[in-house]
Design brief:
The chain is 0% helix and 57% strand. It is built from no helices and 16 strands. Strands 9-10-11-12-13-14-15-16 form an 8-stranded antiparallel barrel. It is globular.
Length: 223
């Protein structure tokens, strides 16, 4: 039986590194922040939406970080970051970038948007194991229906899929608000979902946490 966790709320912010590109989006990773954690107190894991800097990175000093920024040619996208704070607690954070550049959609009826969802997942019950912090990714399809004002989507189970996520919610004037369900083996986490949709692309971010587990990530899709 899966262990179920409801989302927790909070607020926070990042840095730089090496680049690859896929489907018009750039992916940038970062490796170091100057915070020394007390690893003996690593009992809790937290998640939150976060602010980002002018370069599109989450801005908060953490130690032993895992980080990724995803953005397209006009700077629309998201960034996530995971790492230990000064108390030794693991934080997973995600922020959205430049969605003010998306014009609310005008298509009629329903439309499918396809792309990729990515996330950082932490389980501090296994903090000292190499797999206690994981970066996950899977293809995802989001169906947006402007007639009903709802959206829903789920990741696809392919050979290389590592992220299991379902999302749903409402659309109002291009703003997406909803909830999601993340699953990793026996762990289930309820997430909060926020995003924006335009005529031909959409970006959403999500996060959720339990006492010792947390996840934060983003979705970038086009049609």
């Amino acid at each position: 039986m899966a262990t179920k966790y409801r989302a927790q709320f909070g607020l926070s912010m990042v840095a730089i590194a090496a680049i690859t590109s896929l489907s018009g989006c750039s992916f940038v990773r970062n490796t170091v922040d100057a915070v020394t954690p007390d690893l003996q107190r690593a009992e809790f894991s937290r998640s939150s939406f976060a602010s980002t800097d002018l370069d599109g990175y989450v801005v908060r000093q953490l130690a032993d970080i895992t980080q990724l920024r995803v953005r397209d040619e006009v700077g629309i996208g998201y960034a996530y970051k995971g790492g230990l704070d000064t108390n030794g607690d693991y934080n997973t954070l995600v922020g959205i970038n430049n969605v003010d550049r998306l014009t609310p959609p005008t298509f009629q009826g329903a439309a499918d948007f396809t792309g990729e969802a990515r996330a950082v997942y932490a389980n501090v019950n296994r903090l000292f194991a190499s797999s206690s912090v994981q970066e996950l990714a899977s293809p995802i399809t989001i169906r947006a229906n402007l007639d009903t004002g709802f959206f829903e989507g789920a990741t696809q189970d392919t050979t290389n899929s590592t992220l299991d996520l379902r999302v749903s919610g409402t659309i109002q004037n291009g703003t997406m608000t909803g909830t999601g369900q993340f699953q990793n083996r026996t762990v289930e986490i309820d997430t909060v979902v926020n995003g924006n949709i335009g005529q031909n692309k959409a970006v959403a971010i999500f996060h959720g946490a339990g006492t010792a587990v947390s996840v934060a990530g983003g979705i970038y899709v086009t049609r």
